[in-house]
Amino acid sequence: MADETLEALVAVVPPLMQSLEALGQVSRYFAAVPFEEIMAAIGSPDVALIEALPRLEAWPERLSGLRAALDTAGQVAVTAFEGLRAAPEAEDGMTAVFRATRGVWRAQEALYPLAADLPPIGRYFTSPPLRQDAELAARLADLQPRDDVGVFNFEGETGERGGFSLYVPETYAEDRTWPLVTALHGGSGDGRSFLWSWLRDARSLDAILISPTSVGRTWGLNNPEADAANLARILAEVEGRWRIDPARRLMTGMSDGGTFCYVAGLDAGSPFTHLAPCSASFHPMIAAMADRERLVGLPIHITHGELDWMFDVAMAREAAAALTAAGAKVTYQEIPDLAHTYPREINPGVLAWLDEPSA
Questions:
Q1: Residue 305 within any structural domain of the chain
Q2: Of 141, 31, 41, 153, whose CA–CA distance to 94 is shortest?
Q3: Which domain holds residue 47?
Q4: How far is CA 31 from each of CA 37, 91, 122, 207, 282, rounded to the nearest angstrom?
């Protein structure tokens, strides 16, 4: 790689990764911390990014794939910052912030193929508690490309309902079974974008990840049969190709996806061994109508924010109490500075909980 090309790479990648980290902080703390404080805290890493991106145009054609990935991610980040700065003047500021940040997954999808070769990108796609783990970084960097690992999109174009995205860790081996995380998006979301809420932790902590898209506009909370059948189909398809641990099948989800964990996950026929709803709605009738034998001893990990503006935290407390009384093995986590968003920092703890003996 020529000196000027290397210099351009060094100029682009750091502010790009800083910008994406900053956008993640906006999503995490929005509505829990005053917006102006969030913006002051994240600064303006996009300024250096805007200055550096034109340097990619001079790269030779043989680097067109690398250039396209970096440029795609860079433009997503720049556009997101523009939307955030304009949000205070918008008629609906909250919607403007959500609109500005919702496309960050496109940058992540573009960059992920570079994670093994570019250490700053590899660190970004590593679970934060493990980012200083040199042994893990070396192990991930030394892996050879394979057709049976990485990110897959099955019927998963955004907007296509009923499909799913899948991540199989590059460390995957057939000599053991692997825990499975099935992560359900929130209302009006899709699996292809929600995959990135879990990928860095699945990559770092060795879990296979399914991120399905609901059959309808959101999960069938009143009529769960179609979505439940589709999840069973997806699970069977994945288990037919990769080795899944039958004792560690987790269904988790955010908002409507979390509520669907209750609605479908408490059914006697559910194939999932563990449930982890987050920021979800709950009604005592859900526990009252659940299969008694299914509930007894069932591991359920409930996460909710004290500042949730959509589903009051009282719902989560009521769910924990009702499900515990019915015999479930409930772990309850209440986060003081969480509003209504998915807190990715809980993922390592949820995976550790999934590994605990269920007895």
A1: yes
A2: 31
A3: 3-107
A4: 11, 17, 30, 31, 22
pLDDT higher than threshold 80 for residue 199: yes
- In angstroms, the CA 165 to CA 171 distance is 18
Q: Are 326 and 292 in contact (CB under 8 A)?
A: yes
**Which tokens belong to 255?**
């908002």
Q: Which amino acid is at 225?
A: E
Confidence of residue 293 (pLDDT cuts 50, 70, 90): very high
Q: Report yes or no on 103 lying in a domain.
A: yes
* Contact present, 339 and 307 (Cβ < 8 Å): yes
Q: Is there a domain that residue 86 lies in?
A: yes
Task: Kindly state the DSSP code that residue 94 receives in the 8-state scheme.
Answer: H
CA distance 258 to 3: 50
CA terminus-to-terminus distance, the chain: 56
**What span, in angstroms and rounded, lies between the C-alpha atoms of 271 and 322?**
22
Degrees to nearest 5, angle at CA 138 with 133 and 143? 135
CB 196 within 8 A of CB 153: no
Indicate the number of domains in the chain: 2
Helix ranges restricted to H, 87-241: 93-101, 104-111, 119-124, 134-141, 191-194, 199-205, 225-239
CA atoms within 13 A on the CB side of 138: 3
Does 253 or 160 have the greater pLDDT score? 253
Asked if residue 200 and residue 88 are part of one domain, the reply reads no
